[in-house]
Design a protein that fits this description.
Chain B: It is an enzyme of class 7 (translocase). Chain B: InterPro entries: Cyt_c_oxase-like_su1_dom (IPR023616), Cyt_c_oxase-like_su1_sf (IPR036927), Cyt_C_Oxase_1 (IPR000883), Cyt_c_Oxase_su1_BS (IPR023615), Cyt_c_oxidase_su1_bac (IPR014241). The complex is a heterodimer. By secondary structure, chain A is an all-alpha fold. Helices cover 74% and strands 0% of the residues of chain A. Chain A is built from three helices and no strands. The termini of chain A are far apart. By secondary structure, chain B is mainly α. Chain B contains 20 helices and two strands. In chain B, strands 1-2 form a two-stranded antiparallel sheet. Classes of the chains: A mainly alpha, B mainly alpha. Chains A and B meet through helix 3 of A and helix 7 and helix 8 of B.
Chain lengths: 111, 622
């Protein structure tokens, strides 16, 4: 069986649609990229601020990190696209199981 | 490549099985190896019951008794129940979703050989200075002070076979997500496939904590670390948590496929669509989900504090709800059905009351306050044998009868099967029912003997008689298997006559490519729908074409063998100067084989269309 190219030379491919989609995708990437840079700056700023205690800074930086991971996964690794339902499900299930374990260790093992 | 079967010599057959990547042959390997370890674990159980049959017995010493109970538990869970379920998953799941093989046939073979070598390594401990003796849970405070190499065998053996299970589970997940036949949506998958899916997802999340725990234990025992050594600032409780974060999902990994098997049986032999299919799927997923939030109920008496105990107690009791949904759905499947009493249906009937009893005692031990009374007594032993033997083992025996014709093309004798059932079922209740009371009367578990006149004598004698009954049942089944294989009367596609799912639409045993043309699935119970529409077989979803097949490979065997050798090196490197050399040699074999696999292109082969066209059916059937 020969490998069939799915798009090249196929007259029914809507070039206009593709172009619009790509432009949209690019816009999201640029927006999330600038947001990520901004969040990084905020993280550095919060550490640089003398007035904040570690009790505020540490959870705050972790929160920013979580937001950045979500940006990374959904916009740069295309998890927002169709066909990524199974990886999404397993990623969050794994996260849930792992975080439950960490929570348990933090509360009842190393008390 | 010819598709015509040829008579082969013993050597050729052996080489075929050593190198096979075919899911049906790997299933047979799992069945043989799992069956062997089941007999080994069963013998250990018999030794336990002989030792405890009368008070003050000296059949085995206290030390040997500890080794026997440890190996009984470890063997039965890791080397018998899991592989036997993997055998049926391998044999049936790809057929049920209309696939030609699993997603990664090479990995499938690797998973088997890793399990096999891990299991062999663990059992070699009997001949090399003593088996592990710290219980199947191998709590660190006991295990790191255990003399000799017993616990090292446990740690390294389980690590190797655990890798096999993990990659096997991932393989099943990818297969079910990607390789379903056209029309086979998630909500049209048979319940056994669904339970395989959920159990595999649980393997994916549950085995890494075990891997971590075993690695820490390995460093503690073999390389001088102190993760669990309290005197050196370690924490022995960490092992308990890691073990049960794995261990509790593990028992659901065992029971969910058992539920799947019984769902198939109830539906098939009631000749009726499974009652409440979507609620069954929901319950399966929910049990899988809740299974990760209850592990600390094994540690109620470890001093977690009242808040943690209460949370885990309530979470545990919540699991009773989806399990109850399942029980009622099975009952409603039979209600109004045209029930046929075959051997698998006997097991399914026996399963419901047995498992419900195990579930009820489960809620009892889940009550944290009451558990202080039950903990470490025979009540707990009775409880988990009711759910594991009454659930998992009955399911494995039922599935053996149900799918034997699909795996081997011959039908096990029904009369002998029913005799097996009665011996096993009566023996099971005789052995374990009385143990509830032994526990409530105060007999602790894991003791090698007891004094006369404490009220334990008669009950223990009854329990041991029950073990004899179970043994007779298993022997009759072995006889049945041998006689059936010797007679070798071949059967057709659908030997039970009422097959519902896709595996019954193809020959028994299926050709090595399974489906000549992938079938078109029109709904739940795909084959049944076609039969009800008056068709003889499935409608094909594709024109007849070349089929791409993977080549056999000896590399999985070599990769696993390398780890097996390395494990000996790791274990003996402190005692003998050659230990480190053996460790390096073993790892070289493993990584060398993996390297060879990586650089050697293996594109498999094609079965050509012309070879598939058969004069008799013109190649129009799926």
């Amino acid at each position: 069986m020969t490998n069939q190219q799915l798009n090249s030379g196929n007259p029914s491919v809507d070039i206009e649609y593709r172009r619009r989609k790509n432009a949209e995708e690019m816009r999201y990437q640029v927006i999330s990229f600038s947001l990520m840079i901004f969040l990084t700056l905020v993280a550095f700023a919060s550490v640089a601020m003398k007035d904040f205690t570690a009790w505020f800074t540490m959870p705050f930086i972790l929160l920013l990190a979580v937001v950045q991971v979500i940006f990374q996964l959904f916009y740069f690794m295309h998890m927002s696209h169709k066909g990524h339902e199974a990886p999404t499900l397993f990623l969050f299930s794994g996260l849930f199981v792992g975080l439950t374990g960490i929570l348990a260790f933090l509360t009842i093992v190393w008390w | 490549m010819s598709t015509i079967a040829q008579k082969k010599g013993f050597g050729a057959t052996l080489w075929d099985f050593l190198t096979t990547v075919d899911h049906k042959k790997i299933a047979i390997l799992y069945l043989i190896a799992g069956g062997f370890f089941f007999v080994v674990g069963g013998l250990e159980a018999v030794f336990i019951r002989i030792q405890l049959a009368i008070p003050n017995n000296d059949f085995v010493s206290a030390g040997a008794f500890n080794e026997i109970i440890t190996m009984h538990g470890t063997t039965m869970i890791f080397l018998a129940a899991m592989p036997l379920l993997f055998a049926f998953m391998n044999a049936v799941m790809p057929l049920q979703i209309g696939a030609r093989d699993v997603a990664f046939p090479f990995i499938n073979a690797l998973g088997f050989w890793l399990f096999f070598f891990g299991g062999v390594f663990l059992n070699l401990s009997w001949f090399l200075g003593g088996a592990p003796d710290a219980g199947w849970t191998s709590y660190a405070s006991l295990a790191i002070h255990s003399k000799g190499h017993g616990v090292d065998f446990y740690v390294l053996g389980l690590q190797i076979s655990g890798i096999g299970t993990l990659i096997g589970g991932i393989n099943f997940l990818v297969t079910i997500i990607n390789m379903r036949a056209p029309g086979m949506t998630y909500m049209r998958m048979p319940l056994f496939t669904w339970s395989t899916f959920v159990a595999s997802a649980m393997i994916l999340f549950a085995f890494p904590p075990l891997t971590v725990g075993l690695t820490l234990m390995m460093f503690d025992r073999l390389f001088g670390a102190n993760f669990f050594e309290v005197a050196m600032g370690g924490n022995t409780i960490i092992w308990e948590h890691l073990f049960w974060i794995f261990g509790h999902p593990e028992v659901y990994i065992l029971i969910l496929p058992a539920f799947g098997i019984f769902s198939e049986i109830f539906s098939l032999f009631s000749r009726k669509r499974l009652f409440g299919y979507s609620s069954m799927v929901f319950a399966t997923v929910l049990i899988g989900f809740l299974g990760f939030m209850v592990w600390a109920h094994h540690m109620f008496t470890a001093g977690l504090g009242p808040v943690a105990n209460a949370i885990f107690a309530v979470a545990t009791m919540a699991i009773g709800v989806p399990t109850g949904i399942k029980i009622f759905n099975w009952l409603f499947t039979m209600w109004g059905g045209s029930v046929k009493f075959t051997t698998p249906m006997y097991y399914a009937f026996g399963f419901i009351p047995s498992f419900v009893m195990g579930g009820v005692t489960g809620v009892m031990v889940a009550t944290a306050a009451a558990d202080y009374q039950y903990h470490d007594t025979y009540f707990v032993v009775a409880h988990f044998h009711y759910v594991i033997v009454g659930g998992v083992v009955l399911a494995i025996l039922a599935a053996t009868h149900l799918w034997w014709p699909k795996m081997f093309g011959t039908m096990l004798n029904e009369t002998l099967g029913k005799i097996t059932f009665w011996f096993f079922f009566i023996g099971f209740h005789l052995t374990f029912f009385i143990q509830h009371f032994l526990g409530l009367w105060g007999m602790p578990r894991r003791v090698f003997t007891y004094l006369p006149g404490q009220g334990f004598d008669a009950a223990n004698a009854v329990s041991s008689v029950g073990a004899a009954f179970m043994s007779i049942g298993v022997l009759i089944m072995l006889y049945n298997i041998i006689m059936t294989s010797v007679k070798n009367v071949k059967v057709g596609n659908d030997p039970w006559g009422d097959g519902r799912s896709l595996e019954w639409a193809i020959p028994s045993p299926p050709p090595f490519y399974n489906f000549k043309q992938l079938p078109l699935v029109r709904g739940l119970d795909a084959y049944w729908l076609e039969k009800m529409a008056g068709k003889k077989g499935m409608t094909p979803a594709e024109p007849l074409g070349d089929i791409h097949m993977p080549n056999s490979s000896f590399i999985p065997f070599m990769i696993s063998l390398g780890l097996f050798i390395a494990a000996f090196g790791a274990m003996y490197h402190r005692d003998h100067s050659w230990g480190m050399a053996v460790l390096i040699l073993g790892l070289l074999v493993t990584f060398g084989s993996m390297f060879l696999r990586s650089v050697k292109d293996d594109h498999g082969f094609h079965i050509h269309k012309e070879d598939l066209v058969d004069e008799s059916d013109k190649g129009v059937k799926a």
